[in-house]
Design a protein that fits this description.
single chain; 443 residues; alpha+beta; Helix Hairpins; Heat Shock Protein 90; 3 domains; five-stranded antiparallel β-sheet; five-stranded mixed β-sheet; 12 strands; 53% helix; His_kinase_dom; HisK_dim/P_sf; phosphorelay sensor kinase activity; kinase; membrane
Length: 443
C-alpha cells in the first residue's frame, strides 16, 4: 500500500474512532448541560419572584388568608410557579425531578423547591420546568451536534487528503524520476523544489548514490572492455603460433593432435570472452536500437543460417510466421543472435529425427513468437536456473560454455521482450517471446 494511502487511512481511522467516542459521550454530556442550564434558569426565576415580592409584597401572590396557596402554569404546561405557607419543620430546599398532576394529566417536572421566611411566616416557593421540554431541547442539541461532527470529520478527511497529497508531492517526484531511469548512465542529478528537509536529504542521498553507481558502471565498462581486448590479443597470438606450428611438415602426429586440442581450447576461451564482452556491452547499452526488424525475415535468416546443422541431426524445422509484424527501434544483429542461440539449442538437444516449430501469432493483444522442439526437455527444478551464466542444465558437451541462454535473456531485456519458457522432461521445450502491442508494431 502506498504511503499516501496509509496516511489518509490512518487519519480517517483516528477521526472515526474520535467520532464514535463522541457519539457515546455526547448524549449524556448534553443531557447534563441541559439540566444544568435548566437549573440556572430556575434559579434566575427564583430571583425574579423575590424581586416582585420585594417591590409588591407577598400579597401579589397570596391573599390575606394564610391557608390559601398560589399556583400558575403557562398555557402548554411547560413551566409553573407555586407558593404556599408551610410548617417550618418541613423545610427541605432542593432541585429534583418530580411528577405533578395538572388538569388530570401527569407531567414530569424539574422543580426548584425553596422555603423562605417573611414577616414571621414560612413559605414554600416551587418553580418547575417540564422535563419533556428539556429532553426536546437536549435531543435537538444532540442532533445538530451530530450533524456538525460528521461535517467536521468529512471536511477534515478531504483537507487531510489534499494536505497529504501536497506534502508527499516531492516524494512522488523522486519516485517518478527513479522510474524513468532505463540505465544508470541516463540518470541526471537535479535539486528538489521543496522546503521539507527530509525529502531534500533523501533526494541528495539518491543523487550521491546514483553518482557512485554511475562511476562504478563506467569503471566496470572500462575494465571489461580493456580486459576483453587484453585477453583476446594473446589468445589470437597463441592461435596464430599454433597454426604456424601445425604447418610444420615434419611435425609428429602425436604433437599435431595436441596442437589441435590446444586450438580447440583457445577457440573455446575466445568464444567465452566474446560472449562475456557481448553481454557486458548489451547491459551497458552500447548497442543502438535504430532498425525496424521484420520477424518473418529474421526467422528465415536464422533458419537458413542453421539449416545445415539441422540436417546433420535429422531435425525438421517448420516456420509459420506472418510477414506483417515489424519490430521498431530494434537491433537486428542482437535479435539474430538471440533467436539463433535458441534454435541452436533446440537442434543440439533434440532427438534424432525430431522437429522444431517456429510460429508467430497474436495473443492477448501482443505478438508472440514461439520456438518449440521435441527434445529432451528440462526438469522443472532446473527451469529457474537456465539463464544463469556458465550453468548448463542439459548433458555437458565440449562446445557449450553455458552463456548462450544468458545472452538470450540479456538481448530480450534490452528490447523489452517478455521471455517465458515451458518444458516437460522427455517431451520438449518451448521458448515464447512476447513483443510489444500489436497496434504499435504492425505496418
Amino acid at each position: 500500500m502506498r504511503l499516501q494511502s496509509k496516511l489518509i487511512l490512518f487519519s480517517a481511522a483516528t477521526k472515526v474512532i474520535i467520532l464514535l467516542v463522541l457519539v457515546m459521550v455526547l448524549p449524556p454530556l448534553i443531557n447534563r448541560i441541559a439540566l444544568h442550564s435548566t437549573d440556572q434558569r430556575l434559579l434566575e426565576k427564583k430571583e425574579q419572584v423575590f424581586d416582585i415580592i420585594e417591590v409588591r409584597g407577598i400579597e401579589s401572590f397570596l391573599s390575606d388568608s394564610e391557608e390559601e396557596a398560589y399556583g400558575s402554569y403557562n398555557l402548554l404546561k411547560e413551566e409553573f410557579i407555586s407558593m404556599e405557607p408551610i410548617d417550618p419543620s418541613l423545610i427541605n430546599n432542593r432541585i429534583e425531578n418530580t411528577l405533578r398532576k395538572v388538569e388530570n394529566e401527569i407531567v414530569e417536572y424539574r422543580v426548584l423547591s425553596l422555603a423562605f421566611e417573611l414577616h414571621g411566616e414560612t413559605y414554600l416557593l416551587e418553580i418547575g420546568r417540564s422535563l419533556d421540554t428539556i429532553r426536546e431541547t437536549s435531543n435537538t442539541l444532540q442532533r445538530y451536534a451530530m450533524y456538525f461532527l460528521f461535517s467536521v470529520v468529512l471536511l477534515t478527511v478531504f483537507m487531510d487528503l489534499a494536505f497529504v497529497k501536497v506534502l508527499l508531492r516531492p516524494l512522488a517526484l523522486i519516485v517518478r524520476k527513479l522510474q524513468r531511469i532505463a540505465h544508470p548512465e541516463a540518470f541526471k542529478p537535479s535539486p528538489l523544489a521543496t522546503n521539507t528537509s527530509d525529502f531534500v536529504y533523501l533526494n541528495d542521498t539518491i543523487n550521491n548514490m546514483m553518482g557512485q553507481v554511475q562511476e562504478a558502471f563506467r569503471k566496470e565498462k572500462d575494465f571489461i572492455g580493456n580486459v576483453s581486448h587484453e585477453l583476446l590479443t594473446p589468445v589470437s597470438i597463441l592461435q596464430n603460433r599454433l597454426e604456424n606450428l601445425m604447418a610444420t611438415p615434419d611435425l609428429p602426429d602425436e604433437a599435431l593432435l595436441k596442437l589441435v586440442e590446444s586450438q580447440k581450447t583457445l577457440h573455446r576461451l575466445k568464444s567465452i570472452i566474446q560472449a562475456l564482452l557481448l553481454i557486458s556491452r548489451i547491459e551497458n547499452e552500447q548497442y543502438l536500437k535504430n532498425e525496424q526488424v521484420s520477424l518473418n525475415t529474421l526467422v528465415n535468416d536464422v533458419v537458413n543460417e542453421i539449416s545445415d546443422r539441422a540436417e546433420l541431426r535429422g531435425v525438421t524445422i517448420t516456420v509459420s510466421v506472418p510477414d506483417d509484424f515489424v519490430l521498431p527501434n530494434a537491433n537486428y544483429s542482437l535479435l539474430f543472435t538471440m533467436l539463433f542461440n535458441v534454435v541452436n539449442n533446440a537442434i543440439k538437444y533434440n532427438k534424432e529425427g525430431g522437429s522444431i516449430q517456429i510460429s508467430g501469432e497474436v495473443r492477448a493483444g501482443k505478438y508472440e513468437l514461439s520456438v518449440c522442439d521435441t527434445g529432451t526437455g528440462i526438469a522443472a527444478d532446473q527451469l529457474p536456473k537456465i539463464f544463469s551464466r556458465f550453468k548448463r542444465t542439459h548433458a555437458p558437451d565440449s562446445e557449450s560454455h553455458g552463456l548462450g541462454l544468458a545472452i538470450v535473456q540479456t538481448v530480450a531485456k534490452f528490447h523489452k521482450i517478455k521471455l517465458h519458457v515451458e518444458s516437460e522432461l522427455g517431451k520438449g521445450t518451448c521458448f515464447k517471446f512476447a513483443f510489444k502491442k500489436v497496434n504499435a508494431s504492425l505496418i
